[in-house]
């Protein structure tokens, strides 16, 4: 199925929000922590999920739940969502809120229509040497409007998921391939290392 004829699996998700499968996050953290020699259980890591959406009140927010499972200090995982009915700690517009460069890691699944803005703001609020990790469509690399951005902010890694994700309870997928892109603040590599994550 082509992208132009993809399913309507995400059509009912208001404001372009949809929940990342926890298994996909686990797959990324398995290799990311190894590649970057990061121990999430270290007390030093302050982590932000600026778009911490969830399915319903019975479910955990995906990224914080997996980070906690991997040893992150729950008191140092900051969650934000612009939606007032979200269980996130804060309910503010991340793009306009005043933030300092205090986070060690910013990780989220940004609404696609404002993904570029979320990435830019995340690179502002993360500490020098800190990481920004975003779930994006694989074709995000090829959009001409982002060519100038890539010249200044090329990701250090792109973890490509070999299976299409389902973001709905009926497990339907569309024709889009996804990746978790990783930036390291103040590093601008000449090339992005691509890792294909096999999820059988």
Distance between the termini: 21 Å
Largest sheet: 7 strands, mixed
Task: Characterize the overall form.
Answer: globular
User: What is the mean predicted local confidence, pLDDT?
Assistant: 83
Q: If you compute it from the alpha carbons, what radius of gyration comes out, rounded to the nearest whole angstrom?
A: 16 Å
CATH class: Alpha Beta
Helix content: 10-25%
Helices and strands, in N-to-C order? Answer: HEHEEHEHEEE
Number of strands: 7
Low-confidence stretches: 1-15
Task: Write a compact overview of the structure shown.
The chain is of the alpha/beta class. The protein has four helices and seven strands.
Describe this structure in words.
With 200 residues, this protein is α/β, with parallel strands linked by helices. The protein has a single domain (3-197), classed as Rossmann fold, CATH 3.40.50. The protein is 20% helix and 20% strand. The chain contains four helices and seven strands, in the order αβαββαβαβββ. It has a seven-stranded mixed beta sheet, sandwiched between helices. α1 packs across α2. It is globular. It starts with 21 loop residues before the first helix and ends with a strand.
């Amino acid at each position: 199925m082509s992208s132009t004829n993809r399913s309507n699996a995400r059509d009912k998700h208001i404001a372009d929000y949809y929940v990342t499968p926890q298994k996909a996050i686990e797959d990324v953290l398995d290799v990311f922590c190894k590649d970057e020699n990061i121990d999430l259980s270290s007390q030093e890591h302050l982590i932000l999920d600026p778009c911490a959406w969830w399915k319903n009140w019975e479910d955990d927010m995906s990224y914080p739940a997996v980070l906690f499972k991997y040893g992150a200090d729950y008191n140092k995982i900051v969650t934000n969502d612009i939606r007032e009915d979200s269980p996130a700690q804060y309910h503010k517009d991340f793009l306009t809120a005043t933030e300092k460069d205090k986070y060690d890691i910013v990780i989220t699944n940004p609404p696609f229509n404002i993904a570029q803005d979320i990435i830019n703001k995340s690179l502002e609020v993360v500490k020098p040497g800190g990481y920004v990790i975003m779930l994006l469509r694989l074709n995000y690399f090829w959009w001409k409007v982002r060519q100038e951005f890539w010249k200044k902010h090329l990701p250090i890694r792109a973890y490509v998921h070999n299976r299409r994700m389902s973001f709905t309870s009926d497990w339907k997928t569309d024709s889009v391939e996804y990746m978790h892109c990783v930036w390291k603040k103040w590093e601008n590599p000449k090339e992005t290392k691509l890792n294909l994550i096999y999820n059988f």
